[in-house]
Structure prediction request, 788 residues.
Amino acid sequence: MMLEGIRVLDLSRVIAGPYCAMLLGDLGADVIKVERPGRGDDLRYLRGGTNAMSAPFAGCNRNKRGIAVDLQKPEGATLVFELARGADVVLENFLPGVAAKLGLGYRDVSAANPRVVYASVTGFGQDGPYAKRPGYNTIAQGMSGIMGLTGMPGQPPTRVGASVSDLAGSWVAFGMINAALVHRERTGRGQHLDVNLLASSMALLPDPAAIYLATGERPKREGNRNPALTPAEAYPTKDGWLNLVLLNEDQYARLCDVLGDPELTAERFATNEGRLAHYADFRARMEAALSRATTAEWVERMERGNIAAGPIYEFDEVFEDPQVKHLGLVAEFAQPGLGHARVLGFPARASATPASIRRPAPRIGEHTDEILQELGLAREEIDRLVAAGVVWRP
Amino acid sequence: MMLEGIRVLDLSRVIAGPYCAMLLGDLGADVIKVERPGRGDDLRYLRGGTNAMSAPFAGCNRNKRGIAVDLQKPEGATLVFELARGADVVLENFLPGVAAKLGLGYRDVSAANPRVVYASVTGFGQDGPYAKRPGYNTIAQGMSGIMGLTGMPGQPPTRVGASVSDLAGSWVAFGMINAALVHRERTGRGQHLDVNLLASSMALLPDPAAIYLATGERPKREGNRNPALTPAEAYPTKDGWLNLVLLNEDQYARLCDVLGDPELTAERFATNEGRLAHYADFRARMEAALSRATTAEWVERMERGNIAAGPIYEFDEVFEDPQVKHLGLVAEFAQPGLGHARVLGFPARASATPASIRRPAPRIGEHTDEILQELGLAREEIDRLVAAGVVWRP
Prediction:
């Protein structure tokens, strides 16, 4: 396994932190998830999750063991500190300053464990005017500019209908933790990583940012159309939508062959400039032509014509796609509390040490005993901690 | 520097691969970018880039040295093979099979360099029914479901107005390369990483995927509104838009205090259920209340009221935000061919070995001589290769 022998202490909640820790687990790290006794992670209850085991929780927390600890109790914080002392990676998403108040900040942990890679994932970073604001996906989307760039021309900014800002934070944290582990392996030195949803969301936008910062021009919302190239946009078909991406006139000539409408080969449409100059007319003819067959038929014909095209799937259709099936992107495993989990698997393949799913998401405190025993605690001591409400087990 | 001493050979073009290689360079890796003589990377010409140096190219290729080699000439491929033999990381985004035909595939390189981490970034992966289709951001967006999830209720699927599928590929590749380097440092073994834009885009969607796969229900496009919670949506203000995210009734009581409209405290709006049942009426009152002040005023009042809220920025406004400025997310450096580059900087901070910008993006073949000299070639031999059109220098 790629990260075999790497111990991760996951103090994070909801999506951005837990998904990152799960990726480390998928690659073989031993991940311990710490939750508060009783309710645990709020993601357990998303969209009516029952048994404290929602499907999104299972999809963001497989390959972890779970311990339930009350961090507000000094003994609880001390136990978690002991776990951090033995960890290669600590991941937390408290508001800045909260981990330090618990004695679990980077300074505390690194003093005892200088090799630790300690990643903080917050809405806005560890300092600055908004440091104390909580991080929400929707708010990071609005502030990063991704909403301002998305939507139909002349219409309001549009939210990406997914937790992309949370996930941007996950992927930035995942990359940075691994890069810091490379450094740690080569030098023996750990460090503190400060990842935030705002900057991570902006890190999905380097090309529009470069264009804006060079020109000073506010980009217009372009909907599903590249306004500089035609046809490079979405078209309705007989049963759905088709994305077409044409980059040059050779491709346009091939498109005319595929579509078989002689009007599209007319002089006024022969160049990109001409098609832009007669856009309404051109678009109407394209729509008429493309309405004659289904998306699947057009995708096949375009592929034979060597033209870049693809379906625009409604979300359920994604999972019926032959390539999505071929890549095995849906993971299935027995998930206590849910019965059977079907969630996204790991997105990339690795020839020597591929990702694997070795255990489902834990119930709250499922491995409390096991983890405390590994810390060297005797059974009577664990029973005392349970009785005192410091730790919890089901 | 975090990746000091790591040598990266970047054979990739456009955005997904080059941005990933740049991230490695930002963390201290020595990145050599290979381009074809003459035109180089197509991204150099995006949106009318002059001097073969568009702003997006500068934003995706700083911290690299450049060599121009004709890979179609056997001597050119051999030279690049020699660079791969000495690399820790090779990154390529040819269509599957093309690198192998050039003698630069994973098998070829790993036979000479078993420690190499070799990452292929393609549209659809190295095998499967669509393996030979080129990867385009828009097409991956359409097929991953991110467009199907995005847009206003009842309206068409909507493209995210940015290259999020390319960038998802970049960030997945960045994380996987570093994870594979961790493994390599611990075991001495390299491997082949197979990253694709389709699966990487889906890796931004674990929560909607888990919900869909559990329920079988096609998710509706929700626009800027959480249909299960109110108010958790975007509202127009006097001068723009405001995102509000309320999760419970305590927060609603505080919101009523901030808004100061006694009607909003009416019995029928007292619970989430009530607000949903009288949604049209509720929304109209909220719009009336929020239209009385600017977005900035509301953000400040909501922060004082401890309510999660944020502006929805048009893209130019992002760069005026105090937190964006505090985090130093815009990098500026002298960029030959462009004069001065202003592009996005690195999105995360690291306490011991932060990212740095040490050189601008290279001109095509700018370091051809330097790199070939490092390979041990004599000046006369380099001159011969230039004369034969195998390599190129400005």
Observations:
- The mean pLDDT of chain A is 96.
- The longest helix of chain A spans residues 164-187.
- The CA atoms of residues 142 and 235 of chain A lie 28 Å apart.
